[in-house]
Amino acid sequence: MVPFNYWVLRLCRRVTPQRIVDFILDRGICLKPGKETSTPQTVAGLYAEWAGKYGHRLEGSTVCVAGFGGGFGVGVYLLERGARRVILQDPYAPIRSRRNRHIPVELIGRYFRKKDGDWVPNGVQLVHVRQDLPSYSFENPESADIVFSRSVLEHVVDAEAVVAACARLTRMGGLNIHLINLQDHVFAYPFEMLCYSKRTWDKWLNPGSNLNRLRTQDYTAIFRRHFSSMDVTIVESLKEEFHRVRSRIRPEFLTGDDEIDSAAIIRIDARK
Length: 272
What we know:
Layout: H1 4-15, H2 18-27, H3 35-38, H4 40-52, E1 62-66, H5 73-80, E2 85-89, H6 97-100, H7 105-111, E3 112-115, E4 118-121, E5 126-129, H8 133-139, E6 144-150, H9 159-169, E7 170-181, H10 198-205, H11 216-226, E8 229-237, H12 239-245, H13 258-261, E9 263-271
Parallel strand pairs: 1-2, 1-6, 2-5, 6-7
Antiparallel strand pairs: 3-4, 7-9, 8-9
Helix pairs in contact: 4-5, 8-9, 9-11
């Protein structure tokens, strides 16, 4: 049975102007900003921990955070953990000024400079990039030791181009770590978006932030084409919710392996 309130929520989200969505996100009203923005110190610690599992240290490394969401804090705290340089890339997200005001004053003085009466990244240790990642990677190949993203790849239109850009940006022997949220972002219905044809999804339901509906097997194939080795970890699965709607999910989204198909969040660790 198609949940009526899901359609209401999806249609409302689709027609809401992005500037209003950004206003709501910046204030945490109903919609919550990404973890990089809301808890940057915690996320920087997680990134350091994940990289360490593969023998990569932040100390002395150039780190790129792709699709960082507009909050400079994650870059600041990666620098505080020893990164030599942090590139914060995002062509879409507005600067989360309200969130950035929480950065301690002493760190503002260390990594920012004054421009037109406002504080902006100094461009040396902390670099803010507005270019799309493919363009930036062509101009700056092999300029990063580690590339991170969190809840970004599920939103991109051309995942192949962005993953290829991540590989191009990464030095030989470097590391990529990408956390990907496979759920429908109306979280009460985590697999509902998989129940509709491409035409229906694109015309009526896909939000302005775009959900590409790629699954674990799709990301695995893409990363294998661009990196020498990779690991996929299912961070969270929602088996009960999956089985509740399995009969309605379109066959192109199913592998026949419920362990894979019920994945809600995955992490891909890829080495160049």
